[in-house]
Amino acid sequence: MPMQNNHQMLEKLQTPCLLLDESRLRANIARMKERIAGLGVAFRPHLKTAKSLDVAHIAMASPKGPAMVSTLREAEYFADGGVRDMIYGVGIAPAKLARISAIRARGVDLAIILDSAEQTEAVAAHIRATGDPIPVLIEVDADGHRSGIAPSDAATLLGIGRRLTDGGATLRGVLLHAGDSYSLNDPSALAAAAENERASAVMAAENLRSAGLPCPVVSVGSTPTARFARDLTGVTEVRAGVFMFGDLFQAGVGSVAMEDIALTVLATVIGHQRAKRWIIVDAGWMALSRDRSTAKQAVDQGYGVVCDPSGRPYPDLIVADANQEHGILAIRGGSSATLPNLPVGSRVRILPNHACATGAQHDRYHILDGGGSVSAVWPRINGW
Amino acid sequence: MPMQNNHQMLEKLQTPCLLLDESRLRANIARMKERIAGLGVAFRPHLKTAKSLDVAHIAMASPKGPAMVSTLREAEYFADGGVRDMIYGVGIAPAKLARISAIRARGVDLAIILDSAEQTEAVAAHIRATGDPIPVLIEVDADGHRSGIAPSDAATLLGIGRRLTDGGATLRGVLLHAGDSYSLNDPSALAAAAENERASAVMAAENLRSAGLPCPVVSVGSTPTARFARDLTGVTEVRAGVFMFGDLFQAGVGSVAMEDIALTVLATVIGHQRAKRWIIVDAGWMALSRDRSTAKQAVDQGYGVVCDPSGRPYPDLIVADANQEHGILAIRGGSSATLPNLPVGSRVRILPNHACATGAQHDRYHILDGGGSVSAVWPRINGW
């Protein structure tokens, strides 16, 4: 009776808390690794979603990496855990260089990214002062999403590349993130975004190489483009992170399937407003995050989709609204579905809009094994 | 030259991080305490925003309380710190009663709230098993916001009240939260919401008392109604929390002034997209939270209002968009303000939309003294 065991185990947990389905996690990672290997490039998992050494060990090619991080706190934590090959994926601030070199002094190949002459001068000054030949990837803009130099802007690319090399930095290559792919939901448009990301990367790399500058690494990535890329000629590595857990937003994009989402928030029913057809649970936006990214998609999932303790969604039951520690469950507008009978004390599981945001509200994962029992607790970190 | 000292001190901090202006904090708290005392009732500060013993010691009438908490983790943390009078302000789940009694066994007068016969039976069963006469406040619904029994529903109130008393619980009184006041922004409407909250509380209390049941505590509260209440006859205590820090959402409601907001996120400029008039900083939604509550107000503040290191807002400069670790600063749409000159490495301070949500993304406050120097670091907790 695995279902009964599942319920009994889940009922022992204090709510709200995070559940992570280990078999879904492993399947999501295996599928992505196979896909990226099939395209003939290396895989550098982004650890910003999981922030967990246990998850990193499943996702990375080896216990030493490679990996991508979004904060120096992550870099320090994963360095403590033995990871030796990381890129810090946020444009470097000059005041962070001392901390970068301190991590590197522990034997970690930690690379940084930048996209301006000002950052380049700060790196050169730091190298003059310390002698640490920090590896640098130049951030290139694939789609106008955020940061980066236009791949066609050879003058800026070469100016930065030469100044880095002259200043003693290790010019490691170029790095792009096709962030605008998040706004798409059509497979052919997603494949086109992936091809644009690839072509932009190759153009930037060729601009450096044709001027005699090194560009050993051509790094691209986002969960949607990693999922839909058909050809990665000229690329050396792909990065992706949120695919490991999946979430409702990525399901709306089409880059993960709803039934592959590995992360849920366990909550307890604490009340009803029967005249309004509301069920109140003890998971509010503090446990789910304030993320409402599905509001812009074809299907607005509120603050999340409500499932039974085994992980099956109730028809059209969503977290319609949330306060700090209260979630209001209701049937989606326009649906004729029936509100399930969930007495006070019932447990539900909530699929999150955005796994990166929901995960960050918690400090640990309760790991569900194949039978739905909690087999372990994996810590995770937050902060900077 | 206090301004120069300020800059020098802030430049030593790793970003992003939370800054808390101690003089604004103390002034906000002193003003609220004076207001509530002037209305002749007790003040029970809600600690869900700050989650800090240092802040609690400024806000509470004594080191022992009283105080309000939103999680049992808070109750345990503040009990560790010597607080002895708390209400856990989320409708009780049966599986949490053992933890409640464990905290109470340490000498803490920890009360719970509930609004259903099911919860009442669970409490009665728990008392039968443990002998712990848990104090209970019946949650009453002032405005249809979320949970609670209608104040006019005497039958339900009395049924629960009698069952609690018969079951050995300590019937402590009634508790309301006028959460719909958050959607208002007119002082007379806010005063009316406060009067409705008061009148609903008194009606519920009278329903209990007229049937011979005890109701020593009549507890109301929200930052907007605490700010605008004119008369609290019949009420014994007021609760409020977010007013201590203030935020852009409460400024939009009119319950705090923009210049009284005590909490900011310190960030560093890491890049520019000059053609788009964007400045990129290292505080994204992870540091600011995903809260976009001002989007529904008259003035949409994006992910926050950008200030210089001394705390003065730049004209019409907001965090127009945010990714996990990137904020995009831009001039508000429709404004003719000029983008300030903020080279890479510049520090800015960002006023948050929602102090409860932004605070929760961090594990400490960097305390700014009157001269703008960082005088201390105060830890805060998160989780359940």
C-alpha end-to-end distance of chain A: 44 Å
Largest sheet of chain A: 8 strands, parallel
Strand content of chain A: 15-25%
- Biggest sheet, spatial arrangement of strands of chain A: 2-9-8-7-6-5-4-3
CATH class descriptor of the largest domain in chain A: Alpha Beta
Mass-distribution shape of chain A: elongated
Which quaternary structure do these chains form? homodimer
Rounded to the nearest angstrom, the radius of gyration of chain A is 22 Å
Question: With helices defined by DSSP (H or I, 4 residues minimum), what is the helix count of chain A?
Answer: 12
Report on this model:
The structure is a homodimer of 384-residue chains. The first copy, chain A, is of the alpha/beta class and 384 residues long. Chain A folds into two domains: 2-19 and 262-379, D-serine dehydratase-like domain (Lyase, Ornithine Decarboxylase, Chain A, domain 1, Beta Barrel), CATH 2.40.37; 39-242, Alanine racemase (TIM Barrel, Alpha-Beta Barrel). The first copy, chain A, contains twelve helices and 17 strands. The first copy, chain A, has helices at 2-11, 22-38, 53-59, 72-80, 97-104, 117-130, 154-166, 187-209, 223-228, 248-253, 285-288, 355-359, and strands spanning 17-21, 42-45, 67-69, 85-88, 109-114, 135-139, 170-175, 217-220, 237-240, 263-273, 278-281, 305-307, 313-322, 327-331, 347-351, 364-368, 374-379. In chain A, the strands form two sheets. The first copy, chain A, has an eight-stranded parallel beta sheet. Chain A has a six-stranded antiparallel beta barrel with strand order 10-11-14-13-12-15. The longest helix of chain A is centred in the middle third of the chain and has 23 residues, at 187-209. The radius of gyration of chain A is 22 Å and the shape is elongated. Mean pLDDT of chain A is 96; it is low at 1-7.
